[in-house]
């Protein structure tokens, strides 16, 4: 979309430079008239923006536990980041250079920072987190309230009834609504940052330095998601109420399933980084002197490769800027002079004309499938690893931020290098996309068999045909009158059977043993345990946690292979549409990816995850967060969704390659019977057209 701005201002670049140079530069520090400093500032801003946008995905399971959300609701919350972005992204292509771009970027960044602060508000307006709801508020948590005490059978449900007041429900809805509003504002604030920044760099950088600056910008920006997961790994090691710890402390560790980390602290840190990165943009001029010198490192490193690109970029202006603009048809030529009403009227016609192109439509559909896979994996992979392999949220984020995200970055870079160094034709770009999708699909198959089955949980009935319910083992805990909504899991180490609470295990006493690094809590005299033995506080350890490393390595390898198709598929779009439609084609591509992939995919994955739940926590009669999943069903459905989207992408790329081969065959047949001039009009054929295409 920023290409439109650069094309529209191609014939006025010298004028920009003249205007800016004639202004007195003593009004601002000299550094704000340097495009290099703008590239540095914009790299840091986009890095911070992607951190705050991706941070929710690293703490999605923690937010679910803290506020009692289902995976479908949390997926919808994550998708709302794209709602505001999608609603406004088309109009950004219209405004282009009509506005003060640095100030618009700064205002958008300030809105992103305010939205990040708004995301932390639910923590401060909510009551402190109580991980043991069976204890009255004036008693310490993990007390005798969760033990088997027959005399408490009558008043047991009283706290639950009191907690279901209309005020509590209204407060819950208000907290969730605040998070949805904050996510929407995050998307709205991010709209002007990337398009305006890229077009500003392209307008005022030297034509030979612009690709290098944009490469540096994208390289720094791609580290944002990895840093978001790293930040989540650090913050989730801290207790959620670190700013208001109870007097007696807490008896939880990060391995306890009731543990909730300081999810809000990451938003606070990210919002501060965005605010700091936004401050320089209010001092940049609307137009700065155009860079006149090529970087020496650029000239030395890309002397052989940049010459055709530079010629391709300079040729229109060297011939005649007016003639080059006259040759451009329809929208690009008149877009700078269009009113908003005319722009809205013209846009559907260009949209339909672009969607009728088979190559464009199939490539976009393949990218939609890939983006659905990526969106679902990025949102729920940390939670999947937590549940499937019984690891902490902090460790899951560390694995993703340290292995999966860097692998995807390497895949994108390798794909771009292959296209550039091997000078891949559209046919070979399609073949590379097909190969990457096929290998990614093959590496997905072993993931169906790497995982842990659900360990035995007393009273949980696995019947997919009926509503999962809770049924106590007969006799052993009937006199205890255990509250049904309590959750304080304990484990019988001899049989590896887990009980929802000590009360459900029939335990009547509690013993705390001090260790070297932490205290271990035991529950004794348990009627449901053989020999009335003891049980340990906390869930049973998984017997196959060591499989998480092979699993994440295969996921990372698949991510690298899927990312390999990013640059070749993008080049197929640029070379597969009319020259006058390329700018809006890219904008339509990103709009369709948001509407068809990034918005629905987290909700689809969250709904699929919810169907594998076997025991829900209830809050005022409604389903809240899921306590236990069927691990085998969870793995099959989560990986199955990934397999489905990867298969769709593979089929689309296969059709693209088939169409390209058919067009090449038809063009070859016509070239033998007609004039050679017709061959150059075919899609993506002829060596004479390659320099022009590669310069886009």
UniProtKB/TrEMBL annotation:
- Report domain Kazal-like positions: 470-530
Transmembrane residue ranges: 37-56, 76-97, 104-125, 170-191, 212-240, 260-284, 359-381, 393-419, 431-451, 547-574, 595-618, 638-660
Membrane-topology descriptor: Multi-pass membrane protein
Compositionally biased region (Polar residues):
307-322
Q: Which InterPro entries match?
A: Kazal_dom, MFS_trans_sf, OATP
> What ranges does the record list as Basic and acidic residues composition bias?
1-10
**Sorted alphabetically, which SUPFAM superfamilies does this protein's record hold?**
MFS general substrate transporter
Give any Gene Ontology cellular component: basolateral plasma membrane
Which controlled-vocabulary keywords does the entry list?
Answer: Cell membrane, Disulfide bond, Ion transport, Membrane, Transmembrane, Transmembrane helix, Transport
Q: Tell me where it resides.
A: Cell membrane
The GO molecular function terms of this record are: bile acid transmembrane transporter activity; sodium-independent organic anion transmembrane transporter activity
Q: Where is this region: Disordered?
A: 1-24, 306-326, 665-696
Fetch the PROSITE patterns from UniProt. KAZAL_2
Please give the biological process terms from Gene Ontology that the record holds: monoatomic ion transport; sodium-independent organic anion transport
Note the NCBIfam families from the entry.
Answer: oat
The record's similarity note reads: Belongs to the organo anion transporter (TC 2.A.60) family.
Q: What is this protein called?
A: Solute carrier organic anion transporter family member
